[in-house]
Write a structure and sequence with these properties.
Layout lengths: L6 E4 L6 H7 L4 H9 L3 E7 L2 E7 L4 E7 L4 E4 L7 E9 L2 E8 L4 E8 L2 E7 L1
Antiparallel strand pairs: 1-2, 2-3, 3-4, 5-6, 6-7, 7-8, 8-9
């Protein structure tokens, strides 16, 4: 059985987040604000169905998906890209691929101990 991601998670660091935002073409001022934020993620998991809510003092964002099913997404939390998104399991990791205007972006989430990890793919 895959990992249960359900819970409330506080972001404590954003390694390489600046490079990710530059690759997306996000303006300087927005990048500086985003780098100062410490988001909180609330993940609700029911089997292979997920809702991930990201809360900050700047913007909030919610995405819902089912593992392996492609869906239309607008990345409102970042840069308002319209993408086709699919999230799959790779062992105990959630791996997201977004296809659209900017080539193959996405992210990977996994849990180690009591920490939720997130890596953005550029």
């Amino acid at each position: 059985m895959p990992t249960n991601f359900s819970g409330t998670w506080d972001i404590i660091s954003n390694d390489n987040f600046e490079s990710y935002m530059v690759a997306l073409g996000i303006d300087f001022a927005t990048r500086k604000i985003a780098n100062m934020l410490k988001p909180q993620k609330v993940i609700e998991q029911d089997g292979d169905s997920f809702t991930i809510k990201t809360f900050t003092s700047f913007k909030n964002y919610t995405v819902s998906f089912k593992i392996g099913e492609e869906f239309d997404e607008v990345t409102r939390a970042m840069d308002n890209r319209k993408v086709k998104t699919v999230v799959n399991w790779e062992n105990d990791k959630l791996v997201c691929v977004q296809k659209g205007e900017k080539k193959n972006r996405g992210w990977t989430h996994w849990i180690e101990g009591d920490k939720l990890h997130l890596v953005f793919c550029i």
